[in-house]
Amino acid sequence: MAVGNGALAALLPVPGVRLATVSAGIKKPGRKDLVLMELAPGSHCVGVFTRNAFCAAPVIVAREHLADCSGRPAYLLVNTGNANAGTGAPGLADARRCSAALAELTGVEAESVLPFSTGVIGEPLPVQKIIEALPNALTDLQADGWLAAASGIMTTDTRPKAHSLSFHCEGRDYVITGMAKGAGMIRPNMATMLAYLATDVAVSTPLLQALLSEAAELSFNRITIDGDTSTNDACVLVATGAAGNDPVTGAGGALYNALREALQALCVELAQGLVRDGEGASKFVTVQVNGGRNEQECLDVAFTIAHSPLVKTALFASDPNWGRLLAAIGRAGLPELDVRLVGVYLNDVLIAEHGCRAASYREEQGVAAMAPEEIVIRIELQRGAQQATVWTTDFSYDYVRINAEYRT
Amino acid sequence: MAVGNGALAALLPVPGVRLATVSAGIKKPGRKDLVLMELAPGSHCVGVFTRNAFCAAPVIVAREHLADCSGRPAYLLVNTGNANAGTGAPGLADARRCSAALAELTGVEAESVLPFSTGVIGEPLPVQKIIEALPNALTDLQADGWLAAASGIMTTDTRPKAHSLSFHCEGRDYVITGMAKGAGMIRPNMATMLAYLATDVAVSTPLLQALLSEAAELSFNRITIDGDTSTNDACVLVATGAAGNDPVTGAGGALYNALREALQALCVELAQGLVRDGEGASKFVTVQVNGGRNEQECLDVAFTIAHSPLVKTALFASDPNWGRLLAAIGRAGLPELDVRLVGVYLNDVLIAEHGCRAASYREEQGVAAMAPEEIVIRIELQRGAQQATVWTTDFSYDYVRINAEYRT
């Protein structure tokens, strides 16, 4: 199950980036399970990583290498089928062996190769298979390899998630392209979200990191399928500088603004794509909370709604169950919440206010609002000027089936 | 579905308390849906109530009345079939009308009647039906009415939850009896947990409140079905003083200790009963976290595990999925967690340590540990001396069915 048709717009190559997608035999024979990204000299790279204390071996090594190569890696190496998570010290050595092998083949430092893994937790990484597939991958590198790569990083995703934007600024054209995989936060025994983004804009490393952190906060950190945080989450942004502009080093200029806007739009598109393809998803739900004293309390209300199994099963049933929404808002922990001010909307239908069902509300309106695949739940707190939006899915039989049937 | 056979031990009357259970016609004709508890003069009463900001009208009125009668109510009036929640100002008036009608019939002050409701959210309380059933209820009052009352307060519970303990102290016999209903934290569109406890021990009000707060914290606040907090939760403890002892006014004496122990055992028994009868429950799971720096971080880990949909679906599948347990521990937010020290046990089988599968672990052991209806997940943090235990259930197809099929 997934929401919408998932059709992808054309993916634009990013000058300075080439990608290869090959089969290393980690998953079933013939399945593409190894993706290699080559970054031209002059590129640099920033990342945001899982905050899970049990983070996977490749996350630890990728972070180390990114620091050791001063943010200028030559290769990103991604395998699926095995997360190399919950693998202890041997897992760290395995991740380093893969990087070292690619470095030796290509004549770069081992620190210039960032490893990423996604798939089953707790199994030893099949290092030899990965190493043997590297020559093929190097041969296969191509600038228009984004679509194949977006499929190559999938695990139990039902379809690839990728998107491109181009923008024009001060007489020059730029591009930003990205791909991502998801999304359960942990998939069945899988370690989940990976996202790779690249642009040809020249931009300083500190600014690139700030832009990525901000965009991830407003996109990947605003989605939830089941509230579980993966051990392997990673999102990487490459700036190749191939567009030849004077490097952007400070906030506020026209190109900074254009890049920021494009990056945020790209991340939101990919994050929403993860939700639409969430495990067992039959609804795509936007939870928008307005009128909070600060952004955090808006997020607290939005995530309490988005994580509530009772709200999510009601969404699955297309049931306009405003009682469950009120109950979720009421336990979000907001200080001095005056429940008489709170308004609850499904799409644009006011369903509850003054702590009870709205006088104007008719059940047919709620049923009509809940029928489509895409639903907006809007909460008006009426106690401030801040707002926040998160995206989530419903909770279906299929979610239980997918996560219960999958065995270690 | 429910875990275990739910057989109840004999329920002991509490001198000073009489109970009636009658049909007011709120639910289907003939279904008992109104419970009245009469407390003899000299009894007093303390309570703990939901922290949900959208708390139901009867919760607001019961709290008010309890204060206004100085903790000495004469009657507790409980209806099922309608939660009188999400009903705004008219709901408050309805709850007050029920109390006033009973007060008029019995010649007590309206503030001496505490109202409680459980059932569907958002529908007007059928006040007239309740008022018309009061004479019958008054006629029906009897000392051994606990079992009928435990069934009378049920909504979608599949069986009554009640328990008694007697204890002997310094030449005198005492009794404590309680009943509870649950448990989804909100049931399908229902507003959930109610518990009524009574003892014949004479004990001062401040001490009684302290004892109840402590016992509730270690029992009802340590269970979770789905993490949703009801709008109607209430737990009330009555001390009739009918045993004739010198009132207990301070901590530390033999009777204080005996009462405290019996009260905690009663609350744990009832709380576990709510979990065993949780929506769609096929497993009863104890999550025990040892070796924390403080109790709160043990609770954080325990509840993160107990709320994780991925852990709960694995429990449903009897899948010893230690990767999901590690991932849940890792996202519980513990500062400076050294994952290499963490040990994960299923019953007494060590399944993970040093951040990976335990070398000694065999899959057969995990499968055997997960097979029974009752499972203990034990986490050893090895960073302190504190511990905490919570109880929960799995997440089954039936949970989704119960909560998705039920319509507003």
UniProtKB/TrEMBL annotation, chains A, B:
Keyword Amino-acid biosynthesis found: yes
GO MF annotations for this entry?
Answer: L-glutamate N-acetyltransferase activity; L-glutamate N-acetyltransferase activity, acting on acetyl-L-ornithine as donor
Keywords of this entry: Acyltransferase, Amino-acid biosynthesis, Arginine biosynthesis, Autocatalytic cleavage, Cytoplasm, Multifunctional enzyme, Transferase
State the reactions this protein catalyses: L-glutamate + acetyl-CoA = N-acetyl-L-glutamate + CoA + H(+); N(2)-acetyl-L-ornithine + L-glutamate = N-acetyl-L-glutamate + L-ornithine
Query: What residues make up the catalytic site?
Result: T192 (nucleophile)
Q: Which residues does the annotation say bind substrate?
A: T155, K181, T192, E279, N403, T408
Q: Where can this protein be found?
A: Cytoplasm
Q: What class of enzyme is it?
A: transferase
So what does this one do?
Catalyzes two activities which are involved in the cyclic version of arginine biosynthesis: the synthesis of N-acetylglutamate from glutamate and acetyl-CoA as the acetyl donor, and of ornithine by transacetylation between N(2)-acetylornithine and glutamate.
Instruction: Spell out the subunit comment.
Output: Heterotetramer of two alpha and two beta chains.
Its recorded name reads Arginine biosynthesis bifunctional protein ArgJ
